[in-house]
Predict the structure.
Amino acid sequence: MNRREFNQYLALGWAMGFLPPLQLSAQRPPASPLKVLVVGAGIAGLAAANTLAAQGIEVSILEALSRIGGRIWTDRSAGFPIELGAGWIHGHSKANPITALAKAIDAPWVVSQEDSYAVFDEQGNRISDDVLNQYYRQYKSLIRQQYSVAQTGSSLLQTLLQIQPDILQDPLMVYQLALNVEFDYAGAIEELSAEFWEDDKKFPGNDVLLPQGYDALVNHLAHNLSILTNHEVNAITQTDQAIVISTNQGDFSADYAIVTVPLGVLKQGHIIFSPPLSTTKTEALQHVEMGTVNRVVLQFEQAFWDTEVQYLGYASHKKGLFPCFFNMKPYLGQNILTGFAVGNFGKEMESFTDAQITEQAMAILRKMYGNQIPLPQNQRITKWGADPFAYGSYSFAKADFVPQDREILGWPEGQRLLFAGEHTHVEYPATVHGAFLSGVREANRILGR
């Protein structure tokens, strides 16, 4: 698929069934030529701008950071790509627009081997597959049961405790919850909605990795777009005549603006809206939260682990304390393990120094493989919750969430101000493809499709 074909894919997305036919009201502001500003150069903003530019619309992106991509962040400082943000295409199939985007640039991909794992207990003993399968079946049974007793406004943990009061006393059950819930959905079980924590659909197909870097997709979308980096937006004013966006480098005006900043930035109130956002939208903002999944990337001179295994798991009483390490050796040819800190611990670790975080990860690896293992040569640590341009990794449904909240977050405010981002997608929140589709959705809203 060449670039022209891909742009046609964007423009005709609504007709292919994954984009609803959305329109602003009949009082659409006249503009000739039409000018649009997009706030944020993450995948949602890039998708929106690319869709508009393909139709000849004058569009510019205002990006606060010195780089593009947002929560897609590929670090190449070591001479090879390390993903610090999004890492997978979830559901690699023709239905997934990120699959189409990868194909447009012939990006190689490899299937993530979800059934390749070795899990260890707190004493460093490897847990048998039979025991792990038994606990996984128990976990699935508990999840089914909790839906039958879940009450509006209750957290997932509250409901699980009704069924199994000692659930957090069993490290193998804690492991299942950390890996299958908190890692996938970013929120801690103490906060996730019992009724709606799985508020998403999934594309068919395997999860795949892009060994040459997710940033290749970002750069492809950004090609030939007008992107102003280091432009931090602090105010957006909507009038009958225009949208005026104030940044640290001056003011910009347009006929429309599409705000694609992460949910966490909106919730922090760093952008002042005039007129203020509607009560309906501000209430919806309170029902959706940003979760935190942090990475600790450890590079070693030699691999001391089983390099044929994709996931190294750790079953601990401390929920979220590096429940898994991802083995990058098969994909990058580098001796790298990436540890994931999730849930409440993912946030807690951000108060530690990098040295303390590295030592916590190494202490677990020593339990698994012995005290003789080497220290890492290099390490890279994320702190997404403390990032003032993200305030978290991806969004989740809080205990007081209602199904309309994500739809409301994607509603326009007035005639000129539109919103996109993974948190606004009803079917595919918390994913790259959801963010992408939300950007195309809002571009098509402006185009009257």
